[in-house]
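In the laboratory, one determines a bound structure by crystallizing the protein with its ligand and collecting diffraction data. In a computational setting the workflow is compressed into a single prediction: the sequence and the ligand go in, and a structural description comes out. We illustrate the idea with zinc ion.
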Amino acid sequence: MNKHNRRVRIVLWATSAVLVLCASCGTRQNRQTRTPNIESVIPVPVQTENFEVPVSKEIRPLVLNRHTAIVCTDSTFAPVAEYLARKVRTATGYELKIADRLPDEGRNYILLTRTDSVAQGEGYRLVSSPDETVCIAAQAPAGAFYGVQTLLQLLPPEIESPVKVKDVAWELPVGVIDDYPRFKYRGVHFDPSRHFAGVEFIKKQLDVLAMFKINRFHWHLTDDQLWTIEIKKYPELTAKGAVRTEGDGSTHRGFYTQDEIREVVAYAAARYIDVIPEIEMPGHAKAALVSHPELSCTGGPFEQPRVIWGVEDDVFCPGKDTTFAFLENVLTEVFDLFPSEYIHIGGDECPKVRWKACPDCQRRIREQGLDKKAGHVGKDGRKHTAEELLQSYTITRMEQFANAHGRKIIGWDEILEGGLAPSATVMSWRGEAGGIAAARQQHDVIMTPNSAGFYIDHQQGAAEVEPVSIGGYSTLEKVYSYNPVPDSAAADWGRYIIGVQANLWSEYVLSDAHREYMYYPRVLALAEVDWSPNDRKDWASFQRRLVDAERRLDYHGINYHIPMPEGTLVDLLAFTGDSVAVPFSNTRNLPMVYTLDGSEPTAASAVYRDTLMIGGEAPVVIRIATLTPQGKLSPSRSIRVERQLLKPAAEPAAVDSGVVMRVAEGLFLTDEQIAGARFGADTVVRYFRPGYEAGTKTAPESLVVYEGFVELPEDGVYGFTTDMEELWIDGERIVKNGQEAASRHLRHKTTRALAAGKHAFRLVFNNMIRHGWPDVWNDISFFVKTPSGTVYERVKASQLTHAVSVDE
Ligand code: ACM
Ligand code: ZN
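The predicted complex, in structure-token form:
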């Protein structure tokens, strides 16, 4: 329930243009001020003010009840009024009437009114007065909608409930908010082309994005790995391009029918969100080429969409007119489905190897004189190859087509290569340099810099404790602290920065719940970067406001990220002395709770205050989780802390350099299959290598076991890790990465107390494509941290031996 914060703050009444519209506003003598409880709004508004009323006057905030009226004086605001009525009805059960004039009693209403005195189309002024009225004034419906979103955030979090909640006082704090966005483009990106997610998931996200005033939904519909948009003229695109057989033999599929797309676009529009489709060209096109190999340089055939992540060399052939006819036909259907001013045509990561060897591409290069321009300094001050100029030709040609249909194009920053298409908007992803270069050329730019945290496929904490990700590091605080336009650039290139977007690529995002885990709460930080003036941002304040916002997310069933306990990153911590220090921390300095008896921690468990000191003979299992202020726990971690005697070294009678390798061909998906593998003959190899001859990056699938001894230099506690399937030391399996995830980031770390000398090891390499990642791309090795060392180092060939029989 809202309680007024009674801290007194004197704020002078500022511009009051809207007051005339609100019949009942405060007077100016004998002021007493109340600080409105408007501290919880995300993104933080441009300006919030106290409401000043005479001391003698009783403060009566509006408390919603079944008689509250929504007054809408402008028919263009009617959809916003209806949206508000629907939200209120759902959570409170009140069927609020929508009237077109103020009620006679002059109180208990929410007025939505149009005025030209509010700065921008998306801006609004919200006056919550002390005599039971609220007025939201805006120039345009979008502004009224954002005023309503702020109003909803001023109500108790239960207002987001999907079912009626009883016994809530639906009280609004009094105060005045003047607000408008810093940037016109406030975007979130969604990638169903690696892992698919359906329409219900998207609609759920659109509901939430609207709460935080996000206004663009970038829908990455096509890529090498799936083509996910139905095109009526080319039904084979989805018949063949929207399904792939994964490395483990399972099938992944999904696409959106045109009816579903219309449904999403309409749903988004009702929330003032533009849906921007992305149709990738000329690269990232493998899924399209499966059904239309004639549009490639080589003609194919292509069996299926790309099964591993990364970039395909086979791309659209811009040497062929049929390619342009195809792309134009596709875009014609896209224009019909998406009313957005922008159409994203990709343009990123297009390898040029096929174009170099393609007679059609080379003919196009000559016809267009690109060979003559190649190697000379262009308008952008750089030299380009003929193939880079062909990329620019392709983008420019498609831009002209889009422009002729009244649309603007967006492309990734690679579209700078070879010269920008004349009116293209650049999406700067490889850091900010491309964006700044484009802005200096007076092109609009959307900043999505991976380096600044806006690749939210990057992990939000230590790799050891977060789910497997593509890598990178993007904490909430990193996202929050970004300022795309420093003051020094504001009048210069800064004018061309139209907004910031967070991108969630889904290679390593296998489920809807995991998608939400990656989006939230980072998208809320993005919202504040995009909407709020930089000098209104405050990390400490944002974290406080986040508590309330996450309660709202709970009502939407959003699986947001809670930082995991870090500090100690191993799953087993061995020690040899009397005791060992076990420190914990997390990326947001939130409280942590733990148990030492093996039970799952709860909100009532012991609070972690300082480094734990664990001693004694009996092993202790620490279970620890992060606890949010709203009382939610992160997943718990379990760390076994164990006093160990040094395991003695092995004393083989005779050894030789190298390790024993054994190969079992086939696909091994379960522990039982691995345990039952039938291996071929032993061979001895000097160092770990695949069980087949080099030269191919992927198959044939096989399970490879290496055995031998590893020489350890000193007595003490060693750390171990590997990206391989399993690592065994002295007959104990100490690392198991398993099938749950692509095992690529040395995630699982552990320790053991070992004496100096030789220790038996067994390394298991599962050579298959797991969740789009070939294990052979990992370092086929294991890594050791010595007792006196600080880093995990790859074992050296000189440390490895295997036993040999002693000749008579
Ligand atoms: C991108 O990440 N290739 C835009
Ligand atoms: Zn070609």
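Confidence is low (pLDDT under 50) at residues 1-36. Keep in mind that any predicted model is a hypothesis to be tested, not a measurement.
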